[in-house]
């Protein structure tokens, strides 16, 4: 069974925020590996979710990002809610009727909402428009699930789901309001012309999770970066375990 899969993804808008831009959102010119991995995860992810967190059976290693349309920016102003959702325990108590729900107000100021409510804020966004990529990735199983039988099962399930356009949540390009649409590209399919785009992006976000570990509750973000260069519309992504991916120090890794 082929362990490398390619999908073509497209959408009207995208925003892959550069972290150095602080409050205002300014997108990288191309999709990040973490956003690409999120699209594959939205199509097929397998593991255990419990009170302690998420224990995936495998992770997606993005290998190649092909830019099919030249990056084009568009300036937007977006309303963002300042406050954040309460804890899972609080939301569960609302659902069970043990506590009175407290809504998050998306508009209004101090006079309308009171001092405890933060309301909304308008922020500038430099997003991308009319994006289209080809993403190539492969499955890296965790040691307990690295048998050939499990690997074949994972690959067969993903290929079947992707060919039928199935996903357990809508993939998106950086922000949940920017939906991504996808199509499976069979092995040996005709090579498409990439955009005539060359740029040394510099340090680019690789991921915010340690892909080698389980995701436990209250775990701190594990920010990794790599030196990204697009040549002839192609961004080659190094393996997560390689030295090209800069990782923070963690004593138990």
DSSP strand (E) fraction? 35-45%
Mean pLDDT score: 88
In CATH, the topology of the largest domain is named: Alpha-Beta Plaits
- The amount of helix comes to 10-25%
Structural class: alpha+beta
Cα-based radius of gyration, to the nearest Å: 20 Å
Which CATH-level-2 architecture of the largest domain?
Answer: 2-Layer Sandwich
- Counted up, domains total 2
Low-confidence sequence ranges: none
The helix tally amounts to 4
Q: Which series of helices and strands comes N to C?
A: EEHEEEEHHEHEEEEEE
Largest sheet: 10 strands, mixed
N→C terminal distance: 31 Å
Overall outline: globular
CATH C-level of the largest domain: Alpha Beta
* Strand tally: 13
Descriptive overview:
By secondary structure, the protein is of the alpha+beta class. The protein folds into two domains: 4-73 and 128-231, 2-Layer Sandwich (Alpha-Beta Plaits); 83-118, no CATH class. It is 15% helix and 36% strand. The chain contains four helices and 13 strands. It has helices at residues 33-43, 88-95, 110-113, 148-163, and strands at 4-14, 25-26, 47-50, 53-56, 58-67, 73-81, 120-141, 181-185, 199-207, 215-216, 224-231, 234-236, 245-246. The strands form two sheets. Strands 1, 2, 5, 6, 7, 8, 9, 11, 12 and 13 form a ten-stranded mixed beta sheet that branches. It has a three-stranded antiparallel beta sheet with strand order 3-4-10, with no helix packed on it. A hairpin with a 2-residue loop joins strand 11 (224-231) and strand 12 (234-236). The protein is globular. The model has no long low-confidence stretch (mean pLDDT 88).
């Amino acid at each position: 069974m082929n362990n490398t899969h390619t999908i073509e993804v497209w959408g009207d808008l995208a925003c892959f925020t550069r972290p150095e831009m602080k409050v205002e959102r300014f997108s990288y010119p191309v999709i990040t590996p973490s956003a690409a991995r999120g699209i594959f995860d939205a199509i097929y992810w397998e593991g255990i979710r419990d009170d302690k967190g998420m224990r995936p059976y495998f992770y997606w290693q993005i290998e190649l990002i092909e830019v099919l349309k030249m990056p084009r920016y568009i300036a937007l102003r977006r309303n963002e809610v300042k406050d954040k959702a309460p804890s899972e325990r609080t939301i569960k108590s609302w659902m069970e009727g043990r506590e009175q729900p407290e809504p998050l107000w998306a508009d209004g100021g101090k006079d309308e909402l009171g001092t405890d409510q933060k309301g909304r804020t308008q922020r500038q966004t430099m997003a991308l428009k009319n994006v289209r990529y080809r993403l190539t990735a492969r499955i890296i199983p965790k040691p307990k699930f690295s048998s050939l039988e499990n690997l074949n099962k994972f690959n067969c399930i993903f290929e079947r789901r992707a060919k039928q356009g199935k996903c357990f949540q809508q993939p998106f390009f950086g922000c949940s309001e920017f939906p991504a649409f996808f199509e499976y590209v069979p092995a040996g399919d005709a090579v498409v012309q990439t955009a005539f785009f060359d740029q040394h992006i510099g340090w680019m976000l690789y991921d915010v999770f340690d892909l080698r570990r389980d995701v436990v509750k209250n775990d701190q973000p594990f920010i990794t970066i790599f030196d990204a260069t697009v040549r002839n519309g192609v961004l080659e992504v190094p393996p997560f375990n390689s030295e090209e991916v800069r990782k923070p120090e963690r004593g138990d890794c």
